[in-house]
């Protein structure tokens, strides 16, 4: 057996890549180029040799700070370009590499130029807004003043310089002169203040004015016809023109302070119509000039931003890479001569030649007199886990890694999940009509794969696109299982020939009550369409799907136990094979493997035996005669033997392994101490509770902890064998639920609506059926089956062999740097 297993080819996809701990001694003059070339290769994960130092104490902290500052400037340019609404496509021609110092100077110059233009533009915009508000106030406030003056002419004419009160309106002559040249003679006169304020502040502003003047004022207001741009937010703001009539200097002071507090801008408006027209012409002239100046400034600013935008993407990539290089250099240490940098890291064994060639090229390109020293070190800690994946297997590997990263060189569940995961999903989702809908969605994602991979997608769409091959396989397996169940939106079809059953007479009047008769060979593939609508449909499908779920569950759990055997054999742990794998296999298959055998025999023989009765009385009365429940000769003694084996397997799992580990520990520390010191490092990678793992941290060996751990592990497996087998019945439950829901929507919605002659009712029925199919069966049911298949893999399957306490291989690679790693 050992010779046969040794001759088997290595399962490269099953285990992570072999990793090597290497040391680099790099001369200072070629350090930057060497790290850059290694980042382009992306196959070396550096260890941080300065973990005890803060980021500010590291050698290249200043360079990292400079790169961070340049990243800030580039983000500023990007925000300005987006704010201006410009679309700057990067240049396709290859630009020459730019030195970091030159790029830093260019960015500083561009930033100073853009900031200066923004400042000038903001000042001009502020002046423009003030003139625009002044023009609006002149246009709107003059109406109040003209109406007031017209009313005043009809009163006494001898009071030319006095003030009047007429019908609640407070009026005054030569208000502009009083505003601009206040004198003692005007202190008791009636005045007005005109201005403009944001519309959302108007109500509070008016209420505050009324309270401050105790009602001794008249407030007129009108809405502005034009919206004004807020220079700080670049949003258009709706404003209201107001005119406040009042009396007295004290009231004037209060009103001006309130205007200032509410951000209202006040503008003097002359009462003389001629002066108003003259002032309006001057304001319009200045507005025209400012508009031309603002347009010219905007064009100049856009040209400057365009010149930056053409190279922005390349500059951001350059800065991001430079920052990553200096961050990596900060993980290296100087040697005692301060002329070389020393680094350590993990790389796949197959990549050693490529890394060596890259380092030689970096030495040559940097004109260094001394080459980079690259040699392998003995590993003390466990290496990282690295699986080489492609577009198909990457999504399944991510599903497994979401539960836990595999331990170094541990069996990889993702290899088997590529098939088992979509298959178990399809068992719960089996309907080839719904499967075709999923297939169309997957094919759409695959057809637009090249375009979608370059776009920035939303979180939901990004998740769908990342799992496009998972959806494709789920759809294909759903079509396959749907053909087995013979369901197309719950409707059966005679795809593979005619039914094996027919009615007892030509009228088929007793087909549902008495049943059909079999007259030919069974239906060649899947469920016979005649079962649909028969009186035994539900019992038949229940029995079929429940037994099938148990068979699939026992098969997958046995696969998990077999993988635990290959794990133990790979790590050289004979104790795990003798005292864990063998008793677990015996216990699981003595009970539930035997149940699976009974199911298959019952299917093959057509026996009417009650399997519930057989399994219950196997424990309660193992010596009792089986009677009509006997499926084969010698069943009773076989059951007794299997029951005894199951009882023996429990202490077999519990007691031998802790005592064997204790014996190995005592031998090592009571006579063989000097003989095993040399091999203690070799056992660091293995499981802590395995035989080889006994050599790791022997000084912390605690027999009671190991025994309790083994006791918990044994109880968990015994109870888990029952609960996990029952957990696979979710395959039956969800498959039945999906089928019944689909039947309800088809019969009670679509067929019911189609029975009416009214076209409107038919259209409503079709719409409701389409909505229910899309959102309930294709979205909610898909998500439900997906999550249940996830649970079966994470707990029932992977729990038999998977430790999941490793850590990912994260190489220094420019390709892995995202936009967020600024």
From TrEMBL:
InterPro entries named among the record's database cross-references: V-ATPase_116kDa_su, V-type_ATPase_116kDa_su_euka
GO CC field: vacuolar proton-transporting V-type ATPase, V0 domain
Primary localization: membrane
UniProt entry keywords in alphabetical sequence: Coiled coil, Hydrogen ion transport, Ion transport, Membrane, Transmembrane, Transmembrane helix, Transport
TM regions (residue ranges): 423-446, 467-485, 548-566, 586-603, 638-655, 759-780
Pfam families in the record: V_ATPase_I (PF01496)
Residues in coiled coil: 100-127
Family of the protein in this entry: Belongs to the V-ATPase 116 kDa subunit family.
GO biological process, one term: vacuolar acidification
Organism expressing this protein natively: Arabidopsis arenosa (Sand rock-cress)
Role, per record: Essential component of the vacuolar proton pump (V-ATPase), a multimeric enzyme that catalyzes the translocation of protons across the membranes. Required for assembly and activity of the V-ATPase.
Tagged with keyword Transport: yes
Molecular function per GO: ATPase binding; proton-transporting ATPase activity, rotational mechanism
Localisation per UniProt entry: Membrane
Protein's name in the database: V-type proton ATPase subunit a
Membrane topology type: Multi-pass membrane protein
């Amino acid at each position: 057996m050992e010779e046969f297993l040794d001759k088997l080819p290595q399962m490269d996809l099953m285990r992570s890549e072999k990793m090597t701990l290497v040391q680099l001694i790099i001369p200072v003059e070629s350090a930057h180029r060497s790290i850059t070339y290694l980042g382009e290769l992306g196959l070396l994960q550096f260890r941080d040799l300065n973990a005890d130092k803060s980021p500010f104490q590291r050698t290249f902290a200043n360079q990292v700070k400079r790169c961070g500052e340049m990243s800030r400037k580039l983000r500023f340019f990007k925000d300005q370009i987006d704010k201006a609404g410009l679309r700057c496509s990067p240049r396709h021609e290859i630009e020459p590499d730019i030195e970091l110092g030159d790029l830093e100077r260019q960015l500083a110059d561009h930033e100073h130029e853009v900031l200066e233009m923004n400042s000038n533009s903001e000042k001009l915009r502020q002046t423009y807004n003030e003139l625009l508000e002044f023009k609006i106030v002149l246009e709107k406030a003059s109406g109040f003043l003209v109406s007031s003056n017209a009313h005043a002419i009809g009163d006494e004419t001898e009071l030319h310089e006095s003030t009047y009160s007429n019908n609640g309106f407070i009026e005054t002559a030569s208000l502009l002169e009083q505003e601009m040249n206040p004198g003692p003679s005007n202190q008791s006169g009636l005045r007005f203040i005109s201005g403009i304020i944001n519309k959302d502040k108007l109500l509070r502003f008016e209420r505050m004015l009324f309270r401050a003047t105790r009602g001794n004022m008249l407030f007129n207001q009108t809405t502005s016809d034009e919206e004004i741009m807020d220079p700080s937010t670049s949003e258009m703001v709706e404003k209201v023109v107001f005119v406040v009539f009042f009396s007295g200097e004290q009231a004037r002071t209060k009103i001006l302070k309130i205007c200032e507090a509410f951000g209202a801008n006040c503008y003097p408006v002359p009462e003389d119509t001629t002066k108003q027209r003259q002032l309006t012409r001057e304001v319009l002239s200045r507005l025209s000039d400012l508009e031309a100046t603002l347009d010219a400034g905007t064009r100049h600013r856009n040209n400057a931003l365009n010149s930056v935008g053409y190279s922005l993407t390349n500059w951001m990539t350059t800065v991001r890479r430079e920052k990553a290089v200096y961050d990596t250099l900060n993980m290296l240490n100087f040697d005692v001569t301060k002329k070389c940098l020393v680094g350590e890291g993990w790389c796949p064994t197959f990549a050693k030649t490529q890394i060596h060639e890259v380092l030689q090229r970096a030495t040559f390109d940097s004109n260094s007199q001394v080459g980079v020293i690259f040699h392998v070190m003995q590993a003390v800690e466990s290496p990282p886990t690295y699986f080489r994946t492609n577009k198909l297997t990457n999504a399944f590997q991510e599903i497994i890694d979401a539960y836990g990263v595999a331990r170094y060189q541990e069996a990889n569940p993702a290899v088997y999940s590529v098939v088992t995961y979509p298959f178990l999903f399809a068992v719960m989702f089996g309907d080839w009509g719904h499967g075709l809908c999923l297939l169309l969605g997957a094919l759409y994602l695959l057809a637009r794969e090249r375009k979608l991979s370059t776009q920035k997608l939303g979180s939901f769409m990004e998740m769908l696109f990342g799992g496009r091959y998972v959806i494709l396989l789920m759809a294909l397996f759903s079509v396959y299982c749907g053909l087995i169940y013979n369901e197309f939106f719950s409707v059966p079809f005679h795809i593979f020939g005619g039914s094996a059953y027919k009615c007892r007479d030509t009228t088929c009047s007793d087909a549902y009550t008495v049943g059909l008769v079999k007259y030919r060979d069974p239906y060649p593939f899947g469920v016979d369409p005649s079962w649909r609508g028969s009186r035994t449909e539900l019992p038949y499908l229940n029995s079929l799907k429940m037994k099938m779920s148990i068979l699939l569950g026992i098969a997958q759990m046995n696969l998990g136990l077999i993988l635990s055997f290959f794990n133990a054999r790979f790590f050289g742990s004979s104790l795990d094979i003798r005292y864990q794998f063998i008793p677990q296999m015996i216990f699981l298959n003595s009970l539930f493997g035997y149940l699976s055998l009974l199911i298959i025999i019952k299917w093959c023989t057509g026996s009417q035996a009650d399997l519930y009765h057989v399994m219950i009385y196997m424990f309660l009365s193992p010596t009792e005669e089986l009677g009509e429940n006997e499926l084969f000769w010698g069943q009773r003694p076989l059951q007794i033997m299997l029951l005894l084996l199951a009882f023996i397997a429990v202490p077999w799992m519990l007691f031998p392994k802790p005592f064997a580990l204790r014996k190995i520990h005592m031998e090592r520390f009571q006579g063989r101490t000097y003989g095993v010191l040399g091999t203690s490092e070799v056992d660091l990678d293995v499981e802590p509770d395995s035989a080889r793992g006994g050599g790791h941290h022997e000084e912390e060996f605690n027999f009671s902890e190991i025994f309790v751990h083994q006791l918990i592990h044994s109880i968990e497996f015994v109870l888990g064998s029952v609960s996990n087998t029952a957990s696979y019945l979710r395959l039956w439950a969800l498959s039945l639920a999906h089928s019944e829901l689909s039947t309800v929507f088809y019969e009670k919605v679509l067929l019911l609506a189609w029975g009416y002659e009214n076209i409107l009712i038919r259209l409503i029925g079709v719409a409701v059926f389409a909505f229910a199919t899309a959102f309930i069966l294709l979205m909610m049911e898909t998500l439900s089956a997906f999550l249940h298949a996830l649970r079966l893999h994470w707990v029932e399957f992977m729990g038999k062999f998977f430790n999941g306490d490793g850590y990912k291989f994260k190489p220094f690679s420019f390709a892995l740097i995202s936009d967020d790693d600024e």
